[in-house]
Amino acid sequence: MGETQTLDLENLDNHLERVTSIIGDYIKHISDAPVVTQTPMEDIRDSLFEDMPMEGTSPDKILDQVEKSFKSVCTKIGHPRFLAWITTSPSPAGTIGELLSVGFNQAPLLYKGSPPATILEKVVLSWFAKLFDYPDTWGGTLVSGGTVANLMGMTVGRHAHAPEVADRGMQALKKPLIVYVSDQGHMSIYRSAMLLGIGHNNVRSVPTDNECRMIPEELRRMVEADRMAGMQPYCVVAQAGAVSTGSIDPLNTIADICEEMNLWMHVDASYGGAAMISDNLRHLLDGINRADSIAVDPHKWFFIPLECGITLFKNKKQQKDTFIAKAVYLGQETDWDLKNTNFQLSRQGRALKLWFAFKTYGVKRLAEIVDRNHGHAKLFHKLTTESPNWEPVCGVELSMACARYIPDNCCAWSEAELDNLQVAILSELEKSGLGFMTPARICGKGVIRLCVANHRTTDDDITLLFNFMTETGAKLAAQHA
Ligand SMILES: Cc1ncc(COP(=O)(O)O)c(C=O)c1O
């Protein structure tokens, strides 16, 4: 009989050493330009597309290809001037935790699938439950990110409100369920409504004020109107850090309405939840502890590498009632098992990277960066306020600032042309390799949006971007016929 072929590798240590050195080199040079590669998409495609390999190749050769065709064209998400979306610059300690997690490949679906990963998930969740001032009845789960964290909150809310759906489906309901979110609500609320069988059309878009915060009187009016019309309002999603502006809805007033009208209150604090670690910003989220569920993303403004989201529940019984499931093949179950806390069964252990990063830096150091990023947004807002060529749109609550470049002879420009100008400025910025920012649409206007969730950004970076965009705006405006 021939020797059994396993998948073990000769020279494993050498390969791992090379991998850590590739990653280390990538992180150490993360601030090099360009932020977004200038290599054309066709070239990247051609260098990576190939047929499924039937025979093996040495990992060393594959690592050569990784260096040449992958690493060299990566988007430098940790670059100090990567200020797009709400995608954090990951902390190197978080990366170490992630590498360990992948290496140990634990399966914390049952306690026996990983005693340490199971306990560690409870540990990090308990930190967040305390941070958000939840009572001892709290429950929670680690998920992939804000989208799933919102889905989890809305799912448990639906089960608490209409438990009959679990067995009999939505057809068990005589009145359609209705969800409320401000007109700044993240698209994941609509997607969750679609997945939960509620439907996009049953998500009400509640109007906002000049600072893009939900108007509570409008919420109350809409809930009453829906009840009169025979609908079944069940959930209000309050934004604590809306995706385009960072606006925070009036949480206490919304909590009053939810209590009075028997509605599930979910807070989407995917981004803004990090304000809770800052002594200067925490007060903005007053009332968040009154929510039935909260979504918060460590992979946004807590500097944890993708993917890492959290849903917290005020009442763990409601969470367990929603997700409880039995399967004989899993063997003996215990109260510690994570499988009844979440829809997913097999899951990555996400706690280790969060635990590693928080222990390495300590929350005080993370809070300093959160405050610094808030200062960056304030600086951008100040620069755009003081310049005759910029019009700030909305104030700064967290670490986002939005503004519109206004050319000297703006009367000669249509609204659509002004909108296009903002996009053109951002496109020139991206092509320059200097930075990467994205547009937003606020109060019907196309704007340039700065979002700083970045531990490497400095005031000089903000000034450099502002000057570049001001000069570019002037150049592009000069070409306007
Ligand atoms: C307010 C808000 N909620 C939810 C999400 C979705 O998060 P994720 O991309 O982690 O799924 C985002 C993403 O930017 C967000 O800004």
From TrEMBL:
The modification N6-(pyridoxal phosphate)lysine is found at K300. One of its GO terms (molecular function) is pyridoxal phosphate binding. Pfam families: Pyridoxal_deC. One of its GO terms (biological process) is amino acid metabolic process. Its cofactor is pyridoxal 5'-phosphate. It comes from the Bacteria. InterPro entries: Aromatic_deC, PyrdxlP-dep_de-COase, PyrdxlP-dep_Trfase, PyrdxlP-dep_Trfase_major, PyrdxlP-dep_Trfase_small. Keywords: Decarboxylase, Lyase, Pyridoxal phosphate. Belongs to the group II decarboxylase family. This is Aromatic-L-amino-acid decarboxylase. It comes from Halodesulfovibrio marinisediminis DSM 17456.
